[in-house]
Amino acid sequence: MGITIYGCEPDEAVLFREMAPRFGVVPTITDAAASEATSDLALGNRCVSVGHKTRLTEPALLALSKAGVEYVSTRSVGFNHIDVGYAERVGISVGTVAYSPDSVADYTLMLMLMVVRNAKSVLRRAEVHDYRLSEVRGKELRDLTVGVVGTGRIGAAVIDRLRGFGCRTLAYDSRPQTSADYVALDDLLVQSDIVTLHTPLTADTHHLLDRRRIGQMRRGAVVVNTGRGSLLDTEALIPALESGKLGGAALDVLEGEEGIFYADCRDQPLGSESLLRLQGMPNVLISPHTAYYTDHALSDTVENSLVNCLTFESGNRHG
User: Choosing from 289, 296, 313, 318, which is the catalytic residue?
Assistant: First the structure.
């Protein structure tokens, strides 16, 4: 059985070449994204794997369908970079992969701790050999209330970790799945010192934290986003931070990150005023969608991409 692996990074390629023979798979590996121009690389393979870093366009999906592709496995938990409805209309099923939730959960706790301890300012001052104490003291998690929005595998793993810090934890999810203290979203926002976002991005959750909901948050509260950038309305977030309504933010994902995150932008204009404004604030941490990026999670992603395709093939041998 053959699978075409699009947008394959070097570290992924090593794992695909190592694991594929164990599953009886012959991989066609390319660092190019799936597109009209590269669809011929899928000829003869009903299954392809794509990354989350570039959008899979309608022309690309149509070209893949014409090349005989019936299944796309995206190497990500979310699939907002793929028009699943259009894929189905051209005869392509789309699947996501599960990987260790601990990667994002660990990173989320790190960001929480960094933002409530003013780590950005402390480290910047230390880099220029200014070792004086900050005028602003940090906070301890045990004294705070943390609101977890979305309690799937990652949100639940965040809640597990928070128990060790002794803080009060609230949760919101349209389908409660853990033993956490669930409350309405409005109540969570009013009561929380830290709000952390872990819900999938859908039409219903786009700008879940908009101007009105940010306005409900406690003065001085902080927001952490390791989910998807568009869960948070950036145009509403910036004035809330600048006015002091919010005390800080830690963002591993950002609206408009496509084409910026994962690229070396040192010698070119960013083209994102909101990113520049956020990075200029001493109480805002930005990282380039890297929370998932661990050895364990990468291994899970590659293995489950292969399993997804094999599962699809086993159910469609006579398709």
Answer: 289
Q: Which of 52, 75, 228, 255 is catalytic?
A: 228
Report yes or no: 275 and 265 within 8 Å, Cβ to Cβ. Answer: no
For the chain, list the domains and their CATH numbers.
2-99+295-314 (3.40.50.720), 102-286 (3.40.50.720)
- pTM exceeds cut of 0.85: yes
Can 289 be counted among the known catalytic residues?
Answer: yes
Mapping DSSP to helix (H, G, I), strand (E, B) and coil, where does residue 277 land? Answer: helix
CA-CA distance, 249 to 196, in Å (whole number)?
A: 10
Annotated catalytic residue within 12, 70, 255, 257 = 257
Q: State pLDDT tens for residues 279-306.
A: 999 999 999 999 999 999 999 999 999 9
Q: pLDDT higher for 303 or 134?
A: 303
CA 101 – CA 95 distance, rounded (Å):
18
Assess whether 89 carries a catalytic annotation.
no
Can 206 be counted among the known catalytic residues?
no
